Amino acid sequence: MNERLPALSADSSDDLASLADIALLRLRGRVAAELKRRGLASNVGQVAESLAIALYNGTPGRPNLQPAPTGTQNVDALSRRGDRYSIKGVLDARKTGTVYPDRDDREKQLFEYLLVVRIDPDWQLLAVYEFDWKTFCEVRSWDRRMNAWYVGLAAKTLARATLFTPQPG
Protein backbone atom coordinates (compact mmCIF):
# COMPACT_ATOMS: atom_id res chain seq x y z
CA MET A 1 0.00 0.00 0.00
CA ASN A 2 3.09 2.21 0.16
CA GLU A 3 3.96 2.13 -3.52
CA ARG A 4 3.26 5.19 -5.62
CA LEU A 5 0.93 4.60 -8.53
CA PRO A 6 1.94 5.85 -11.95
CA ALA A 7 0.10 8.98 -13.00
CA LEU A 8 -2.75 8.36 -15.39
CA SER A 9 -1.98 9.52 -18.88
CA ALA A 10 -4.21 12.03 -20.59
CA ASP A 11 -5.38 9.16 -22.79
CA SER A 12 -6.75 7.20 -19.78
CA SER A 13 -8.83 10.09 -18.48
CA ASP A 14 -10.02 10.80 -22.02
CA ASP A 15 -11.19 7.19 -22.22
CA LEU A 16 -13.14 7.58 -18.97
CA ALA A 17 -14.63 10.89 -20.09
CA SER A 18 -15.97 9.24 -23.24
CA LEU A 19 -17.80 6.48 -21.34
CA ALA A 20 -21.57 6.69 -21.05
CA ASP A 21 -22.80 7.21 -17.48
CA ILE A 22 -24.10 3.64 -17.18
CA ALA A 23 -20.81 2.22 -18.48
CA LEU A 24 -18.87 4.29 -15.94
CA LEU A 25 -21.13 3.05 -13.12
CA ARG A 26 -20.67 -0.56 -14.24
CA LEU A 27 -16.90 -0.05 -14.35
CA ARG A 28 -17.03 1.30 -10.79
CA GLY A 29 -18.90 -1.81 -9.70
CA ARG A 30 -16.31 -4.07 -11.33
CA VAL A 31 -13.46 -2.15 -9.71
CA ALA A 32 -15.19 -2.38 -6.29
CA ALA A 33 -15.65 -6.14 -6.71
CA GLU A 34 -11.98 -6.60 -7.66
CA LEU A 35 -10.82 -4.51 -4.68
CA LYS A 36 -12.93 -6.71 -2.41
CA ARG A 37 -11.61 -9.91 -4.00
CA ARG A 38 -8.04 -8.77 -3.36
CA GLY A 39 -8.81 -7.63 0.18
CA LEU A 40 -7.89 -4.03 -0.62
CA ALA A 41 -9.34 -0.94 1.03
CA SER A 42 -12.15 0.61 -0.97
CA ASN A 43 -13.11 3.80 0.86
CA VAL A 44 -11.27 6.82 2.24
CA GLY A 45 -11.44 5.60 5.84
CA GLN A 46 -10.03 2.15 5.05
CA VAL A 47 -7.27 3.60 2.87
CA ALA A 48 -6.39 6.15 5.57
CA GLU A 49 -6.11 3.41 8.19
CA SER A 50 -3.82 1.33 5.95
CA LEU A 51 -1.63 4.33 5.07
CA ALA A 52 -1.31 5.49 8.69
CA ILE A 53 -0.42 2.02 9.97
CA ALA A 54 2.14 1.56 7.18
CA LEU A 55 3.69 4.99 7.89
CA TYR A 56 4.00 4.32 11.62
CA ASN A 57 5.36 0.80 11.12
CA GLY A 58 7.95 2.11 8.67
CA THR A 59 9.06 5.14 10.71
CA PRO A 60 11.83 4.67 13.28
CA GLY A 61 10.76 5.92 16.70
CA ARG A 62 7.04 5.48 16.02
CA PRO A 63 5.19 2.58 17.60
CA ASN A 64 4.31 -0.43 15.49
CA LEU A 65 0.56 -0.50 14.98
CA GLN A 66 -1.82 -3.28 14.12
CA PRO A 67 -5.46 -2.96 13.07
CA ALA A 68 -7.95 -3.12 15.94
CA PRO A 69 -10.56 -5.87 15.82
CA THR A 70 -13.44 -5.09 13.46
CA GLY A 71 -16.29 -3.34 15.22
CA THR A 72 -14.18 -1.74 17.95
CA GLN A 73 -15.84 1.65 18.54
CA ASN A 74 -13.59 4.70 18.01
CA VAL A 75 -10.42 2.56 17.89
CA ASP A 76 -8.85 1.61 14.56
CA ALA A 77 -5.34 0.53 15.56
CA LEU A 78 -3.44 -0.66 18.62
CA SER A 79 0.22 -0.33 19.55
CA ARG A 80 2.20 -3.13 21.16
CA ARG A 81 2.11 -1.08 24.38
CA GLY A 82 -1.69 -1.13 24.28
CA ASP A 83 -2.21 2.48 23.18
CA ARG A 84 -5.44 2.95 21.25
CA TYR A 85 -5.47 4.96 18.01
CA SER A 86 -8.54 6.43 16.35
CA ILE A 87 -7.87 7.15 12.67
CA LYS A 88 -9.86 9.65 10.59
CA GLY A 89 -9.23 9.93 6.86
CA VAL A 90 -9.70 13.24 5.06
CA LEU A 91 -9.75 13.69 1.30
CA ASP A 92 -11.42 17.05 0.69
CA ALA A 93 -13.31 17.80 3.91
CA ARG A 94 -12.98 20.67 6.39
CA LYS A 95 -13.50 18.47 9.43
CA THR A 96 -12.95 14.89 10.51
CA GLY A 97 -15.57 12.23 10.79
CA THR A 98 -17.29 11.87 14.13
CA VAL A 99 -16.01 10.45 17.39
CA TYR A 100 -18.91 9.10 19.44
CA PRO A 101 -18.64 9.63 23.20
CA ASP A 102 -19.30 7.00 25.84
CA ARG A 103 -23.04 6.73 26.52
CA ASP A 104 -22.73 7.23 30.27
CA ASP A 105 -19.73 9.58 30.48
CA ARG A 106 -19.28 12.09 27.65
CA GLU A 107 -15.77 12.96 28.90
CA LYS A 108 -14.49 9.37 29.22
CA GLN A 109 -11.15 8.80 27.45
CA LEU A 110 -11.81 6.70 24.34
CA PHE A 111 -8.30 6.46 22.88
CA GLU A 112 -4.77 7.70 23.52
CA TYR A 113 -4.22 9.21 20.06
CA LEU A 114 -6.28 10.55 17.17
CA LEU A 115 -4.59 10.35 13.77
CA VAL A 116 -5.97 12.66 11.09
CA VAL A 117 -4.79 11.27 7.76
CA ARG A 118 -4.84 13.59 4.73
CA ILE A 119 -4.81 11.98 1.31
CA ASP A 120 -4.73 13.55 -2.15
CA PRO A 121 -7.22 12.95 -4.99
CA ASP A 122 -5.09 9.97 -6.16
CA TRP A 123 -5.42 8.54 -2.61
CA GLN A 124 -1.73 9.02 -1.85
CA LEU A 125 -0.68 9.95 1.69
CA LEU A 126 -0.01 13.66 2.22
CA ALA A 127 0.29 13.88 6.01
CA VAL A 128 -0.66 12.35 9.34
CA TYR A 129 -1.53 14.70 12.20
CA GLU A 130 -1.26 13.07 15.63
CA PHE A 131 -3.32 14.50 18.50
CA ASP A 132 -2.93 13.06 21.98
CA TRP A 133 -6.12 12.75 24.06
CA LYS A 134 -5.52 16.01 25.96
CA THR A 135 -5.02 18.01 22.76
CA PHE A 136 -8.00 16.32 21.12
CA CYS A 137 -10.16 17.46 24.06
CA GLU A 138 -8.88 21.03 23.63
CA VAL A 139 -9.55 21.26 19.87
CA ARG A 140 -12.67 19.12 19.43
CA SER A 141 -16.10 20.51 18.61
CA TRP A 142 -19.55 19.07 19.26
CA ASP A 143 -21.83 18.11 16.37
CA ARG A 144 -25.36 18.46 17.77
CA ARG A 145 -26.98 16.67 14.85
CA MET A 146 -24.69 13.63 15.12
CA ASN A 147 -24.36 13.82 18.92
CA ALA A 148 -20.61 13.32 18.56
CA TRP A 149 -17.25 15.08 18.53
CA TYR A 150 -15.24 16.13 15.47
CA VAL A 151 -12.04 18.08 14.80
CA GLY A 152 -12.08 21.06 12.44
CA LEU A 153 -9.13 21.14 10.05
CA ALA A 154 -8.15 24.81 10.26
CA ALA A 155 -4.40 25.46 10.10
CA LYS A 156 -4.49 26.71 13.70
CA THR A 157 -5.94 23.38 14.87
CA LEU A 158 -3.58 21.23 12.81
CA ALA A 159 -0.62 23.22 14.18
CA ARG A 160 -1.46 21.75 17.61
CA ALA A 161 -0.77 18.23 16.33
CA THR A 162 2.47 16.38 15.72
CA LEU A 163 2.94 16.21 11.94
CA PHE A 164 4.29 13.16 10.09
CA THR A 165 4.80 13.11 6.33
CA PRO A 166 5.86 10.27 4.07
CA GLN A 167 9.46 10.27 2.91
CA PRO A 168 9.83 10.76 -0.86
CA GLY A 169 10.77 7.74 -2.87
Judging by the overall fold, what is the CATH architecture of the largest domain? 3-Layer(aba) Sandwich
Total of DSSP H or I helical runs spanning 4+ residues = 5
Q: What fraction of residues sit in β-strands?
A: 15-25%
How large, in whole angstroms, is the Cα Rg?
A: 18 Å
Describe the protein in words.
With 169 residues, the protein is an alpha+beta fold. The chain has two domains: 8-40; 44-164, 3-Layer(aba) Sandwich (PvuII Endonuclease, Chain A), CATH 3.40.210. It is 31% helix and 23% strand. It has a six-stranded mixed β-sheet with strand order 1-2-3-4-5-8. It has a two-stranded antiparallel ribbon with strand order 6-7. The protein is globular.
Put the structure in a nutshell.
The protein is α+β, with helices and mostly antiparallel strands and 169 residues long. It has helices spanning 10-18, 21-38, 44-57, 133-139, 155-158, and strands at residues 65-67, 77-79, 84-90, 113-119, 125-132, 140-143, 148-151, 162-164. The protein has two domains: 8-40; 44-164, PvuII Endonuclease, Chain A (3-Layer(aba) Sandwich).
